[in-house]
Amino acid sequence: MTVAARPHPSETSGPTRRWAVACVVFVVGEVALRLYWIAGGRWAYTACDRTDLVDPGGGCGADRVESLPFWAGWGAVGGGIVLAAVALHTVRSSGRLASAASWAAAALLTVLAFPLHLIFELPAAVSGRPSDWRDLGARLALTAGGVLFAGLANASGPRRAPVAAGYRPVPRWASRWAYVAVALPVVGWAVPHGLWVLGVPFGIPERQLTEIQRGLSTGTGVAITLIPPLAGLLVLGLVQRWGQQFPRWVPGLRGRPVPRLLALIPAGAVALTLVTYGVLSGGIVVGRLVTGELPWSDVVQEWAVAATLLVFLGWGVALGVTTTGYARATRARQEQTAATSASS
Hints:
- Helix content is 68%, strand content 0%.
- The protein is built from 11 helices and no strands.
- The chain crosses the membrane at residues 20-39, 71-88, 100-120, 140-157, 177-198, 218-240, 261-284, 304-327.
């Protein structure tokens, strides 16, 4: 019996170094932008989440903001220095610890980007609704940074045996949760929003329906209604063959195994975001109910809006459980491949 040889360090240092360079370039760009803001510039800066000013296209009066919040300025600069140190350390000492630090950086950037916001706001912005493009650009940049650090973590981690081609069925419970994850955005999001676009006051009072229709164009309403459930259909890839093997119609990749992280990272990030949003938003509602700031009568009148928070929470849990099933199935495939290599 022969044991499969481990890759020589030079075989892995190249990809690790390239990912690290990309991560450092990202960090340098972010830090340079923050230093520009600290010096008084306001290009790409937005104040829409801190002021009541109008004009989201202009950053809600960002040019009039004199005092820069700590986390938008020096706090972000300090965080960038830490991220750069993580990337440089990963190049010098690849291994589990360095890979874990890069994974932590990827998770932090993904959470800060809050991808759920992009799922809803990008279609609305493209369809013509006034949007804060500065904020959307910043979130896209953070998402890209999270992807870069995830790539660095994968390149620097312990080397595993190559994944064998072939499909390994996921556990039956994962398939059930996948269909729950598909159904929730349809029933809990698309149906009520579609009715509101059509003028049906489903679960909300007439006055709120009037406000919604006044602020939405037909294109924006259709986009907001359809994009989330269509995006939710991607979860089926976690429980079907095309989530582990590229379909035949994909040029150059047909039949090849899908890299685990290509599915696990986006699915895990979205699940974490959905659960976080549901928990935090639900906590705010409960807090306002306890203090009396929000009367129960309003919740009853707007029950469809309140139920949306539970939809996000349930959607995130269902996606997270499905992702766990996918991870178990594909890990088992890796272990089987490793055992075959070791015995050959």
